[in-house]
Amino acid sequence: MSKVETAPVAPAVSAKKESSSKITWKHFAPIVVALIVALIPAPAGLPQYAWYYFAIFAGVIVGLMFEPLPGGAIGLIAVTLVARLSEYVLFSPEQLAKPGFNPLNASLSWALSGFSNSTVWLIFGAFMFALGYEKTGLGRRIALVLVKAMGRKTLTLGYAVVIADAILAPSTPSSTARSGGTIYPVIKNLPPLYDSKPNDPSMRRMGSYIMWVGIAAVCVTSSMFLTALAPNLLAVELVRKTAQIEIAWIDWFKYFAPVGILLLVTLPLLAYWIYPPEVKEGKEVQSWAAKELEQMGPLSKREIMLGVLVLIALVMWIFRGDEVNATTAALIVISLMLILNVVTWDDIIKNSAAWNTLAWFATLVALADGLTRVGFVKWFAETVASQLSGTPPAIAVATLLLINFFGHYLFASVTAHVTAMIPVLLAVASTVPGVNMHTPALGLCLQLGIRGTITPYASGPSPVYYGRGYLPAADYWRLGAIFGAIFFAAFLAIGVPWMLAIR
Prior knowledge:
Elements lengths: L24 H15 L8 H19 L4 H14 L1 H4 L3 H5 L5 H10 L5 H19 L1 H13 L3 H15 L6 H13 L19 H18 L5 H14 L5 H26 L9 H13 L4 H19 L6 H14 L5 H6 L1 H22 L2 H12 L5 H14 L7 H17 L7 H9 L15 H5 L6 H30 L1
Helix pairs in contact: 1-2, 2-3, 2-18, 2-21, 3-6, 3-18, 7-12, 7-15, 7-16, 7-18, 8-9, 8-10, 8-14, 9-10, 9-11, 9-13, 10-11, 11-13, 12-18, 12-21, 13-24, 15-16, 19-21, 20-21, 20-22, 21-22
């Protein structure tokens, strides 16, 4: 029997290695793409300044895909560039000709607008909840308790992974931190207990099964809760700006719950049938989890306080009235976390992932808004809509959902996909006669998480599980296609009719 690795109680595992200071082709790719697009004549019906803005935006999307710099840095550089060149890329000649119009002040106001956005700060607040799980060890304890209780059979162990992720998901908007930093460090210790080794035929004993359940589970939970995936909140904000539709926390859950619960209940069983483990049961997993829990000791005061505070946040998100919005609720709980010493101010200051995300999303909100501001979104929507002329509304919406879902094969970043596609697809939907905008708006948002299974780069946690060596490339792509098709079919057959029925 192989020696078991010690599960780390460490900060969230990053899906990517720290970027090197060395200049590579990835640093030049966004610039080259932006210049190439800018040199192409503007399409008919689109002003030249709008096309120049789109060129910069295209460079941003390439930058987000290759990440030569952190996402926050890319966004900051982009809005700074647009603000500096605003007379040529952001404002029309008519706006510039208005008496008293100051393009420098107007562009600066636009560039900083995302930092006053409440949704951006809600994302930041939810990151602090994840920090609390990490600092107190509560997330790891929850995972170990479930493994101890349900780890005798491989199938029930799969359900333990699903339940653990579902418990943590509502208050952990980083799927990488939740799965890669909490769930994965626990379950990576399980295969060696049964001599299931990575990059070896023995991986199919149980390692391959449990790793696939881990990645598939986090994708489903990321769609189930608004605050389970940071790009969910970005998508909601883009929907509000593009289609003037508000999506509250409880509305999100209510609309996705039937298909989400069905997928969570059937996921371990489907994986058990499609990708069966060779080892069906054993006592080793439960014994290991019991020893780990013993080493952790009894439930600490900080863990208890964090559990209570997370419940308070969920109650306010679900049952909030006009007195408190979702962002205020998050800030209230963070303040209580500081007062009760669940986390310290130094912990918050040192949480670079949260601050990077704040800068990243604040700038992306402004950049996506710029596409609408310069008229690009309207022009593109009208162009595509002409191709959908005469298409029944149901077929048109299903087509847009299909494009959004499987178009993710082309993206290595959920955020980049959301920023590039959501406003455009919503604009297209708005031009189709007979389409109620709530359906495509909700449909495009709710499928963000479940798309994450399709490729080894489709979500933050994907490289974490793929890189462990239990999921060969051929198996991952095959399973991704199978489960992607299952998830999309379930969403289209159950989720969409349910949305229409209760709207």
